[in-house]
């Protein structure tokens, strides 16, 4: 059949009409729905061989990436309080550095909302530095959050067992300092539950050859800096395969949770 066939012309016309509609839908989702959609995802991890009986509710937050503090950020913090976590861990990138004229004000409002809406976690709240946090640790000063980058902190669990939080600098989280990562892991005691926290998830590639790690936490990927609907992440700025863009996975039997981010 030739191009004058009315069925072909009708099909071509419908296809041409669908393209702008699809682009409009992508625009609306990217700029109007998703930026203010709070998605709480829950995962269960069996660490019964490492900890005494009971449950530990860990809240993982990352990549606020805010240019201002408004109703959305208020809602996020209220949702965090509602979850009643035992432990809160933030994995970097809070206020964007390119917002130089308003950066100080945005950071001040971020600290204010943290003070006004603390999560009140029994084991505390901890945070590592991200790639854009040029005023670290000033951005969390005077709040419930304890800066963790380059530090190893022991928390006491019921039954006398310890939980070791190991916080990485951004460069170490990208895999640029294996010696530092090995040193921090080696300082943990054998009977401690070890949670390694970094901004970039790339460090998980080095963990299997260094020492035992029971859980790794990271952000940075945004769930995919470039994503295609129904396909997923195309680009994550991470050395890990794209299936690690978000969620709970295992890398050579080491559990790793990557947050898609708040902002």
As laid out across the biggest beta sheet, the strand order is 5-6-7-8-12-11
- Structural class call reads alpha/beta
**Rg, please?**
21 Å
Distance between the termini: 52 Å
Strand share of the residues? 15-25%
Helix content: 25-40%
Please tally the helical runs, counting DSSP H or I stretches of 4 or more residues.
5
What is the element string, with H for helices and E for strands? Answer: HEHEHEEEEHHEEEEEE
Shape: globular
Low-confidence stretches: none
What is the residue-mean pLDDT, rounded to a whole number?
85
Largest beta-sheet characterization:
6 strands, mixed
Q: If you had to describe this structure to a student in words, what would you say it looks like?
A:
This protein is an alpha/beta fold and 263 residues long. 25% of the residues lie in helices and 19% in strands. It contains five helices and twelve strands. The chain has helices at residues 6-33, 71-82, 103-116, 170-173, 178-186, and strands spanning 58-61, 87-90, 125-127, 145-147, 152-156, 162-167, 193-197, 215-218, 226-228, 232-235, 247-251, 254-258. The protein has a six-stranded mixed sheet with strand order 5-6-7-8-12-11, with no helix packed on it. Strand 1 (58-61), helix 2 (71-82) and strand 2 form a beta-alpha-beta unit. The longest helix is centred in the N-terminal third of the chain and has 28 residues, at 6-33. The radius of gyration is 21 Å and the shape is globular. The model has no long low-confidence stretch (mean pLDDT 85).
């Amino acid at each position: 059949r030739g191009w004058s066939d009315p069925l072909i012309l009708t099909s071509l016309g419908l296809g041409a009409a669908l393209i702008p509609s699809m682009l409009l839908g992508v625009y609306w989702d990217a700029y109007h729905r998703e930026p203010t959609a709070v998605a709480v995802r829950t995962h269960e991890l069996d660490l019964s061989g490492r900890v005494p009986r009971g449950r530990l509710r860990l809240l993982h937050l990352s990549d606020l990436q805010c240019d201002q503090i408004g109703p959305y950020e208020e809602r996020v913090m209220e949702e965090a309080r509602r979850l009643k976590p035992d432990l809160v861990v933030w994995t970097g990138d809070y206020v964007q550095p390119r917002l130089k004229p308003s950066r100080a004000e945005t950071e001040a409002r971020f600290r204010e909302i943290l003070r006004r809406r603390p999560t009140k976690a029994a084991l505390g709240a901890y945070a590592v530095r991200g790639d854009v946090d040029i005023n670290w640790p000033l951005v969390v000063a005077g709040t419930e959050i304890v800066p963790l980058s380059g530090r190893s902190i022991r928390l006491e669990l019921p039954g006398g067992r310890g939980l070791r939080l190991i916080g990485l600098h951004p460069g170490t989280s990208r895999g640029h300092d294996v010696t530092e990562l090995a040193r921090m892991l080696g300082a943990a005691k054998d009977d401690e539950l070890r949670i390694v926290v970094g901004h970039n998830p790339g460090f998980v590639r080095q963990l299997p050859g260094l020492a035992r790690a029971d859980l790794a936490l990271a952000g940075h990927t945004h769930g995919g800096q470039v994503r295609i609907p129904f396909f997923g992440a195309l680009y994550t700025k991470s050395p890990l395969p794209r299936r690690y863009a978000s969620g709970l996975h295992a890398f050579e039997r080491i559990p790793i949770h990557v947050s898609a981010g708040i902002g």
